[in-house]
Amino acid sequence: MSRLIVISNRVSAPTADKPGAQGGLAVALSAALREADGVWFGWSGETGETGEPNFQTFDGVTSATIDLPEQDVEEYYDGYANRTLWPLFHYRLGLTEFEREFQGGYERVNRLFGDVIAPHIQSDDLIWVHDYHLIPLGWMLRQQGLTNRLGFFLHIPWPPTRLLTALPEHRRLVDALFAYDVVGFQTREWLETFHDYVVREMGGSIGEDDLVTVGGRTIRVIACPIGIDADEFIANATSEQAQAAYTRMVESSIGRSLIIGVDRLDYSKGLEERFNGYQRYLETRPDAHANVYLLQIAPPSRATVESYQIIRAQLDSLSGRINGAFADVDWVPLRYVNQSYPRAALAGIYRAARIGLVTPLRDGMNLVAKEFVAAQDPEDPGVLILSRFAGAAEQLDSALLINPYSPDDIADAIDKALAMSREERVARWRPMFENVRDESVIWWRRCFTDSLMRV
Ligand code: GDG
């Protein structure tokens, strides 16, 4: 059996210093690494001179991390990954920064990853690279003479061709993807936008059996939606910690319906639009006041990037305005919380909610939507309101699908969800639940690695 080598910007496998539960991706990949005697490579998150990777094995999983010099972190991670590719790939041209230094840093760090990792690769290892931080890594590894089976999975959307061509080095970036044998996207939609680029910009062709050819090179390009560790999450939702969180929510709700939002604080998640939609609901349905409240959990992320500081300040002021305008002596319409909660507690909170409000403006997949579905009580499930622009909408199509840019759409969906009969809630929830259970994160991992093993 071949070893599996996973490479991502950060390693999220549990280690001796961070032994706790780490989310579905870490669980699924750790299980695969444990079985296949593999290694997970990535940046340690620390700044310093890059030396040999620091190998450690915890709970049967080996991780290997390197430090990066401060300038590399600024140009590669804060710069090209988070100020250039992230906004551009989420259709936010206005937030995208084009700096030659960022692109230089990106290539430098990808080359560094290649140099450091290549000596540790054995000839029949299966290599799986993750996400937009490391697009050129496959090419760098080929430069080192590696002929291994190489796969790449993109966790975020693939942008429309006309948007992508705003990136000065777009062709170079996409050319690098052709060093891989298998490239995976979250949805059919991102796959088709990629095909469009290949045909229009590269003069390539799309063949049978997911094959894509440009020049003399053919690779397999697939759609393979990521899922959650459904069994773990279902068990989570009825655990003691979840029960405690559930009771805490129910008691503090005093009969009011809870609407829940959970997101990293990121401008792609449509938090401002969500608050505006909720405000529209409150303005237009004065009779419903005091019967509902919105709990938004939003732990800060990427706080060194200016666009994240701006969105945070905007949400602080918008949440203050909403509460100032609508709150009563015994009712606060919006509880806005910038801290993170343990996964089991989140599961209990999802279960206590009447509505899950998931309104990204663009999202590769969105796992919160799937976690919300998994956590519901089958006899009396809550309603998922989901942005049609989340990758998850392809699978969770019996949710109330909305346009997150429209405050009226959001307000109407809240109204509809609160009035929905139990029968309709169950009928909408069941197919979503079956999807979340069947197309789990383990299914996703197999979907990708099976494809890679066929090479
Ligand atoms: C990228 C893509 C794609 C959030 N708050 C807390 C907490 N979370 C957890 C959620 C969920 C995860 O963070 C967020 O996952 P998402 O999928 O929603 O979003 P991104 O972080 O943007 O992830 C995305 C994903 O990659 C996987 O491919 O779906 O489209 O953008 O699991 O529960 N977890 C805990 N406390 C919190 O307060 N413990």
From TrEMBL:
One of its GO terms (biological process) is trehalose biosynthetic process. Keywords: Glycosyltransferase, Transferase. Its EC number is 2.4.1.15. CDD domains: GT20_TPS. Pfam families: Glyco_transf_20. GO terms for molecular function: alpha,alpha-trehalose-phosphate synthase (UDP-forming) activity. It comes from the Bacteria. This is Trehalose 6-phosphate synthase. It comes from Polymorphobacter multimanifer. The lineage of its organism: Bacteria, Pseudomonadati, Pseudomonadota, Alphaproteobacteria, Sphingomonadales.
